[in-house]
Amino acid sequence: MASSPPTLLRLSQGHLNLLTACPRKFQHSFIEQLGTADVIAQQERLLQGARFHLVLQQWLLDLPVNSVLAEETQLQQWLMAFQAAAPQILDAEAQQQPESDRTLEFASFLLTVRYDLLLIGNHHAKILDWKTYPRPQNAHWLEQNWQTRLYPFVLAETSAYLPEQISMVYWFFQTEQATATPQSLTFQYNTSKHEQTRQELTQLLNQLSHWLSRYQAGEPFPQVGWGSAQCEVCSFAARCGRTPVSSDNTLIAEEDRAIASAQLPNVLPTLSEIAEIPL
User: Fold this and answer.
1) pLDDT digits over 71-90, tens only?
2) Residue ranges making up the domain that contains 74
3) Which label site among 109, 146, 174, 182 has the fewest CB atoms less than 10 Å from its CB?
């Protein structure tokens, strides 16, 4: 009886960002599924952002939003700001696809994206993304983020649109004044960016395949260099041997000792046994 083909790992822009920043943290977070205190601390902020995305999705689909808004003043303010700016955010002539998912098989992985809103026109496609934090001062940082590179790439690879016909717009709803108009950043895509992204994706995913193979043989993923600022704020720093456990903070010390004492299992999982990496 023929064996079924291996299940491909699903990777989102968040995984690519972390893999680029620190392969070892990618190992701890997504392959070994180790929780951290910083992730737990971010849960409320992430949940609020998820609720806002749900509010906009239902509003765009002409569905009731009161049950989602409840008594949350912040969500109400963000929705009012969106409604006031809707004429400049939306395109009346374009087809609207809120919370649109796409998947691309690439270099033996499944690249997954979720567009907050995809505006489909005859000769142009616009990817809109809602952010509940302030507009960053450094636009170059966001331009280099894997979300800005991956989202247009997948759309160009899975549609008839040329790269020059695709753009990505971030809308930032966290402003100094509650009634202020949301701010935006627009990134126009083109063929040069598309080919550069293809090359960088190929290189990164080939490295990931190699690291996964070595991981199964008992070799951990690479670490960032000594003295990296990332290690100073990383919950895995003690596990990685990058910072002494501080006796001044008992809770953190106990958590770091527990993490540091955990060893890789004697029998490492095969690729097919690694839990599917979530969005």
Assistant:
1) 788 899 999 999 999 999 99
2) 42-201
3) 174
List the CATH number of the domain containing 129.
3.90.320.10
Domain count, the chain: 1
Task: Judge if pTM exceeds 0.70.
Answer: yes
Q: Which of 79, 49, 85, 48 is nearest to 66 (CA)?
A: 79
Cα–Cα distance for residue pair 111/48, rounded to 1 Å: 26
Return the bridge partners of 259, or none. none
Question: Do the beta carbons of residue 111 and residue 85 sit within 8 Å?
Answer: no
